[in-house]
Structures are given as structure tokens and as C-alpha cells.
Amino acid sequence: TWNEVPAAPLDPILGVNQKFQADTSAEKVNVSIGAYRTDEGKPMVLSCVKKAEALLLEQSDLNKEYLPQRGDATYVQLCQKMLFGEKSKLLASGVVATAQTLSGTGALRLGAEFMKKFAKGKTVYISNPTWGTHNSIMTQAGVPFSHYRYWNAAGRDLDLAGMLEDIEAAPEGSVIMLHAAAHNPTGVDPTAEQWGEIMTVCKAKKHVCWFDSAYQGFATGDLDIDATAMRAFADEGLPLFVSQSFAKNFGLYGERVGTFSITCDTPEAVKAVMSQLDIIIRNLYSNPPKHGANIVKTVLSDPALYQEWRDELKAMSLRIQDMRTALYDELTSLGTPGSWTHITSQIGMFSFTGLSPEQCTQMVEKHHVYMLNNGRVSMAGVTSKNVKYIAKAIDDVVRN
Ligand code: PMP
């Protein structure tokens, strides 16, 4: 039975990780996956998370009962504040519908399922390039999608004119997927002024803007600054979807903690939308897991832990910035042909190196440096120990 089922290709990101695991070379380096590593190359559990877990263990009234489909109400409120800000007009008027989700991916899928039921025929416009799963989630969910130009390869910067033109050309009321901060994979975000221009076009075309927030705090090291663009759109009254992930900024990758929000016109609409999200969730996975949400809830509601988290988040983003400088310095001292200033000017977890697919294959096959074929290197996997080796590998594939 099932002999006719063809083997699926490896996932473009997780597949590279699988190949890395199977590689027996002592020199191998994994910079494929967007997961933070310490300078010793080890995964890290934040200290605020460990403290929150210790506090949770002491709580005698904690049980393992089911959460409602939409998740934990207190957790959801705290997440809304983190996204929209303490002074949000939308939150004050009770017009944001938010459900707890299985991290960012679950939030994206929930949004896609909502679109399939209530935005039939609308197309989602996604940046080119993007995190590949944006596209495949839409395919799997059966939601039509298309792309808008984003990356200007020649200048290694934003193709603002192309982006605006494509968003303008999309049918009125389309859904425009935007990376809230620290664009994956390019590491290039619009400036405040450019965000203003994007907002003007989206508003004129009555588009729904879908902010995917997987890196709040990783672009600048500050949670509020990284939410500025999205909050400006919210204040301007544009209709929004927001998917939120705590995988990277809390280091809660495997705990699957996130939210999905929809802004509405009235609190009555919020009630109806939430009731529909409940039905979708009930039939996807019934209800979300509790542990990760309890950790986030504990940290966000305790001023000392909250401050500790912000400090740890800043430290993670600073280490990544240090590694950008270190890699740039190594390439410069090797005299590697080409300009490498984009390594230090790009932000967030990734560097979009500009290496060609052939050079990327060489990086993996000849040098055991596991990176994505589109040239993306996770700077969070670069350490003081491996940076020299990575630079030498880049130098070799560029020269040969
Ligand atoms: N959106 C973007 C842009 C991402 O880069 C990621 C993580 N790589 C996610 C969403 C979601 O990840 P997770 O499901 O682990 O929260």
C-alpha cells in the first residue's frame, strides 16, 4: 500500500539542517537555520525563561486542563500590548481580535484559513524574496498568492519603486504581507520614510496589510522601535492582520508560542471574528499548548523579569552585530573580491550574502558551511571560533 506516494523533496531550510546533522566533518558549520547560538555555538535558554519556569513549578494551582481554542486570555492581552503598544487606540477601543497560536507558522496558517473562508478570491502579495514558507503555506491552504518586488540585487538594497508599483497594481483590497522588522532573508527593512510611502499606497488601495512579526527586538534590540512601522499603520486605521512569533526573541522555538490578530471596526465584529477563529482552531488542533504561553505570560507580567528579558534580547542582537563586524573584518583582511559592507549594514538574524547558488553549493559541499542556496547566512550561528573559517570559505568560493 501507498507504493504510489512519491518521496517529497527536503524542506529548503530544515532539509539543509538534516544534511548538516549527517555530515561527519569536524569542521562543519551550521548557519542555515534562524536559531540563536551562544558564542560557544550552543543553543541558549534565556535566564528569564528559566526563572519563569521555576516560578511556574511552584504554582500549586497550575493544572493540565485544556485551554480554550483561542488560548489564554491574559497571555493574549499581554501579547497585544507588546505588538500595538501600551497607548494603542485600537486596544483601548477593543477592536483587535487575537488568538493564541502555534508560534508564527501556526499564526500564518490560521490567517490563511481565515482568508479562505472570509476573503474568498483575494490574493496575498508576498515579498520577493521571502521566508519560503510564506509561499508554501498559501499553496497548502489553497490561498492565491503573488509577489511584489523587494530586493534590488545590484545595489543590495530595497527596490522601493518596484515594491510600490506592484502594491499599487494589486487589485483593490488585496492582502499585502509585510515583514514587521528584520526582513527574512534580506536583512533590509524600509526606512521610516519608505514605510510612509508604502502605507500611503496601501491606504489608497484599501489593502489589508499582514504584518508578520517574527523578529520583534532583533532589528534594533528594542521591542518598541521594532514595532514602529506596524503601529503607524494601526494608528492610521489601515486594516491589519498580524502574525507574531516568540520563537526567536524568547528563544522558545520548540514551545510553539505565538498569536494571530485581526483588526476590526467594532467590538461586535471582534466577537464574531473570534468565534470564527475558534471554529477554525477547533478543527485544526483544538487548542494551543500551555507551557510556552505560561512562560511568556509570567515574564511579560513581572517587571523585573520583563526588564531581564529586554536586556537578554539586546545582548543577543548585539552578539549578532559583533559577528557581522567580525565577518566583515575577516573578509576585508583576506582581500576577498567584491564589496562586503552589506554584511554590517543588514539587520536582524540574517545576512543575504549575494553568493550565487553555485557558490552556495560549494560552501556546503567543499567547505561544510551549511547555508541556504539563496545566499542566506544565519549570523546567529556565527561565533568567534568559526568566523575565520566561514570567511576563508567565502573567500575561496568567490575566487574560484
Ligand atoms: N515568519 C518569518 C518571516 C520567519 O522567519 C519565521 C521563522 N523562521 C516565522 C514566521 C515563524 O517561525 P515559527 O513558526 O518558528 O514561529
TrEMBL record:
InterPro entries: Aminotransferase_I/II_large (IPR004839), Asp_trans (IPR000796), NHTrfase_class1_PyrdxlP-BS (IPR004838), PyrdxlP-dep_Trfase (IPR015424), PyrdxlP-dep_Trfase_major (IPR015421), PyrdxlP-dep_Trfase_small (IPR015422). Its cofactor is pyridoxal 5'-phosphate. Residues 27-394 form the Aminotransferase class I/classII large domain. Pfam families: Aminotran_1_2. SUPFAM superfamilies: PLP-dependent transferases. NCBIfam families: PRK09257.1. In eukaryotes there are cytoplasmic, mitochondrial and chloroplastic isozymes. This is Aspartate aminotransferase. It comes from Emiliania huxleyi (strain CCMP1516).
